[in-house]
Amino acid sequence: MRALTWHGKRDVRVESVPDPELKDATDVIVRVTSSGICGSDLHLYEVLGPYLDPGDILGHEPMGIVEEVGRDVTELAAGDRVVVPFNVSCGHCYMCDRGLHSQCETTQVRERGSGAALFGFTKLYGQVPGGQAELLRVPFGNTLPIKVPEGPPDDRFVFLSDVLPTAWQAVEYADIPPGGTVTVLGLGPIGAMAARIALHRGASLVVGVDLVPERLSRAHKDGVKAFDLRRYGKDLGDAIRDLTDGRGTDAVIDAVGMEAHGAPLAKAAQWGVGLLPDAMAEKLMDRVAVDRLTALYSAIDIVRRGGTVSISGVYGGAIDPMPMLTMFDKQIQLRMGQANVKHWVDDILPLLTDEDPLGVDDFATHHLPLEDGPEAYRMFKDKEDGMIKTLLRP
Predict the structure, then answer these.
(1) CA distances from residue 359 to 82, 159, 196, 352 in whole angstroms, order as listed
(2) Which of 7, 57, 210, 299 has the smallest number of CB atoms closer than 10 Å to its CB?
């Protein structure tokens, strides 16, 4: 089959690799029809190379058609249409029973001290082959894949793999009071969808912050109060407080994460580590890595006293300095973590089966063949051609 594989920093390739095979009796093989490129994929493209090996198959946002099932699979059959969550979760362990699928005890990567395995990620999360490929082996065929109806195009359902549950959890964790206010930092796919969900769920004011014109324009059309970071800079917090009686918003969602704009020293450190041999770089990242924390510091500044900061952007630092005095003094609540995809499906799926209140049908800005994957990664990194969300078609 053809698959998009990692070969080094900013070097991904589409090449022929062996087809996946059933290994366990509850496995299924899915022929992928759509697979998204995520902001987290850019972390692999740019920063997390020490945890990857050449030839690793990327991608964790796939959907497709079941092609083959293991002998103990009873909930699916060949021909069924499914979305594959990015968490590899069993669905029945202690953590899954509590809705914490990203902490699944069956697939926890204990040798790395990590939570549940993830499709298409790194050694930190199991190094499981990903879904930017023609075929994907999916374990736990009775409990993991999400069966969806025939009819609507893939765009209606594919975002159940990551974007929708990650954004939904970000809003849930933000704990916005009825009719309350929220600031969303970063209007990429997760931030943009989180803003839409917050409005759908009744927020009276959603402020969105970014510096990419196309993202700001789209958020404005969605009903978001869009703030261009290039204009406000260090005055961003004051500008948002001016909208909220001097307090700041009830909640802030950090949808940016480790590669925030405006942290040159941390960026230089990340780049420097990326130039070292993998074994040395991995040890440094495990013990002394520092993230670019501009967005998180902004969140702590912007949120009102007693408010909540919800972190959906990925961080990976081991010794990130945090302003604990300010956080304690402002009585800030923090919630964060990988999305527990399966936990939120019952809340989200009814919004996809009739009308389209969250605008998923036109959420993707680009649809490209899998063979164009390397160019799509480059364009996404460089924010070219108005690219906000891309779906690859194997």
Answers:
(1) 20, 11, 8, 9
(2) 7
